[in-house]
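Replying to the earlier thread about multi-chain prediction with a worked example.

Input:
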Amino acid sequence: MVSFCFYFQVHQPFRLRKYPVFDIGNNHDYFDNDKNQEIMKKVAEKCYLPTNKLMLDLLKHEPRFKISYSLSGTFLDQIEKMPELLESFKKLVDTGRVELLDETYYHSLSFLYSKAEFVEQVNLHKQKIKQLFNYTPKVFRNTELVYNNELARFIEDLGYIGILAEGADRVLGWRSPDFLYQPATTSKISLLLRNYKLSDDISFRFSNKGWNEYPLTTEKFARWANKVNGNGNVINLFMDYETFGEHQWEDTGIFEFLRNLPKELLKHPDNDFKTPSEIVKIYKPIGQLDIHSPISWADMERDLSAWLGNKMQETALRDIYGVEHSVKQSDDPALLADWRKLQTSDHFYYMCTKWFSDGDVHKYFNPYDSPYDAFISFMNILNDIKSRLKQEVMINGG
Amino acid sequence: MRVLMFGWEYPPLSSGGLGTACYGLTKGLSHHNIDVTFVVPKHIENAEHVKIVSADSKKIIEIDSIITPYMTTLEYKQKKYHVKSPDSIYGKDLFQEVHNYSLKAKEIAKEEYHDVIHCHDWMTFRAGIEAKKISKKPLVVHVHATEFDRTGGNGINQHVYETEKLGMQEADAVIAVSNFTKDKIIEHYGINPDKINVVHNAVEFPETEPKKEKFGLDKVVLFLGRITLQKGPDYFLKAAKKVIDSEPNVTFVMAGSGDMEANIIEKVAEMGIAHKFLFAGFLKGSEVDRAYKMAHLYVMPSVSEPFGIVPLEAMRNNTPVLISKQSGVSEVIDHCLKVDFWDTDEMANKIISTLRYNELHHELSNNGSQEVKKFSWNIPAKKCVDIYNSVIRW
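Result:
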């Protein structure tokens, strides 16, 4: 018996505008609203709307099909003025076969810097999902699948029954990602690991003409997946939702592939689809996994180096959390909201300088010409936040 | 294979990127076992008539001439005036001189065996054309700069323009130092794009690792290049003014000379930033490397820079660079800051950012000095060999 577990990440950041030093102290408008709207509109047309429609069709016609999503808070904020798109997600959830996961509202790396801020953001996300979809997630996924033991224990204490991570070779060794695991030092929570090979075949390699398996057909994919039968319980196919129509354009045939995939996978009588919480309830962990240093699903390294690989990133992250106390003391909701939007991991990803091997992925929706430009605007904005904090102290603190 | 090359004198005598590029390229060619007969104009000041030096696979022929790569017709007149007893072989003006040079080229083409002719920029194009007439060997012209770069598009010298155009038309292949230059050649000279090959320049590496030098207490922002319209010194000034207004601990250094020098010095005084400005004059040899090492940031604000080797030299010295997007070098380097030359607000923003954010400076310095290592002259030389092979009819 093999269960296929689809989880799609849906996220858009609030991209920053080009913010010169001369604006510090003079202009508190940080976000490029035009660009953000333009990108949302473009991605909605190319990916979100057509893919949601396709998913709804598949769910209607194939009662055994199930999927799950994690929708970031910054994404949900940005679709508030796009009722058609929000409605299409609601319709999917209303089928009862679409599970929603929790994450940090601001798609942040807060767990690494401030547990207090992390918990606040998880709760904000939970409230938002409840408010929009009347739904309470039971499974958690951290930003970019950043994960370690400590996070699992923390999430267990918050009452979640499952957590997602990358099936990185480094932590698995000879073991397979196609089973449920028990995070070390926990007793209740289960760990679902991404089958990165099969996931990346779709999200990363699908249209790569240089790939020796090109073109990828549903038959070929099902053949590979069926090999797991007898050697695993679950195949976790975790990917960015933008795979469909955006990373892989429509003319690559990605939508046709997706349309035909469920019925192809279900041709094998032992296969089915399950959501993450169903996996946790049905299967038992096969063993314990002990993961100290954080892993993620990013780049070849599958570690933190996409966001913390150089001194600029280290400084920007350290400094943004360095002002947490003052921001929260200030009791200024606008300042708090701005500060939180600056925590979104994308801002630090744009500052990544290890382009040469993973360059392509880093360029998706990247508003900057270079990581240096990303750092300059971010640090200038952070300095403006600091100037606002000083103002607050002068007004309130006397 | 033997190349008959019409080029320019080598560093340290050379006054700019052209000599540096010729030197690097011939060195790279010898790495690929290509023999070069290198013809250079020799200044009257260190006169000997025709001197032939054999050095490895390279043979250098010097011709008496007072032309230099960046000469204007006015400068020629001044220079000629300084020559004490003008020999009758030197012409009335620069164009006559170029003509005389091409007559010499004919003689050389008769005497020196070669398989291909390769010449660098307009002043050698006639020489190349004449040599081709004699030997019937294919001609490759290498465009390091066009009249449009030198003049900013205003006051194009028709004679220079026509010489450039004729050279490119007569050539069997044209080499442009960047896509930026290739586009200019297509747009302004109407040359068939299929004939134009882009070969980006490279940089020489010294034997020893650079050491950082300190300059007083202030951080130094360096301009190094000819102080001419093409190099954008006036934009550098405008940006400097904005930086000085908000950053007290900075000194701007301008190294180089050129026809805008006096004008720039005056402007600095007018703008009230003279106390934050130093003029270092024209630097040679090791002084150049010292300038890079002393600098916190090197800025190349060029209005139109066909390539721009200088930023690579700065990066080689671990110095971060801020370059104009209107340059060929910006096509090939990532670990630097880039700006439109006219956007002096953004130029100032980026300069200030490198002064304020140590991590930015650190990453640019580290990654830039790594990135520049890929610019070996062996690579452009290999591309030239491929181009020779494509035009030689064996």
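DSSP finds 17 helices and ten strands in chain A.

Feel free to reuse this layout for your own posts.
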